[in-house]
Amino acid sequence: MCRLAAAYEAAKAGKKVIVLEKMPTFGGNSVINGGEMTAVGAPQQKDAGIKNSLDLWMKDTVTAGLGLSQMDKAKELADNMMVCYEWLKNEMGVKFKPVITQDGGHSVPRSVVADNGSGSGFINPMHQKCEQAGVSLLAAELAEGSLAHDFPGNNCAVGLKVGHSFRELEAGHELGISFVGQHAATCLLSGNPEPVRDR
To answer: How far is CA 181 from each of CA 59, 116, 131, 146, rounded to the nearest angstrom?
Structure first.
């Protein structure tokens, strides 16, 4: 989901963007989750007459996180929560149910839900918007190894396995791509301790 958002905004700014997805379809876990997001101050919450505030959300976040929350990141999320909601709704065309729900760790209902009750309610409109913006979306393309980025002028290169399949590990063929005077970003998750980088 984060890659599609970044790709769309970069393409809208006039950049040529290629998104590589190792799986056959885009979205990862986001496309199969419950399609919910926290949105303090959303219309659904106001319509239900629920009293809420960012301070209360911060308190709930710290409590649910057993005091281990990174407060600077929590505050950044709080400050941009409604910005993200409005962007998804107005820019991406995501449709939300006219209800508000309450998830674990929250003291009041404050989660909005995609109209189809699935993360695909976010991913599919974002995928379509990226295509309309001219983003090249390539699925089943496995980036092998780290990006080689020690070239002058922001040049970089990446090794790919085109037509990759986790069911057939030998499927596909190798291909190298170089980006001259461009930036490449990697979205690194879970076991990889390195942060997202812009190269």
So the answer is: 45, 41, 24, 18
Specify the long-range contacts of residues 101-105, CB closer than 8 Å, at least 24 apart.
Answer: 101/36, 103/36, 104/64, 105/60, 105/61, 105/63, 105/64
Q: pLDDT tens digits, residue range 67-89?
A: 888 899 999 999 999 999 999 99
DSSP 96: B
Span of 22-36, 44-58, 133-147, 176-190 with lowest mean pLDDT: 176-190
- Is the CB of residue 111 less than 8 Å from the CB of residue 70? no
How many Cα atoms occupy the beta-carbon half-sphere of 161 within 13 Å?
Answer: 15
Residue 177 clears pLDDT 70, i.e. is over it: no
Three-state DSSP class for residue 145: strand
Determine how many CB atoms are found less than 10 A away from the CB of residue 181: 10
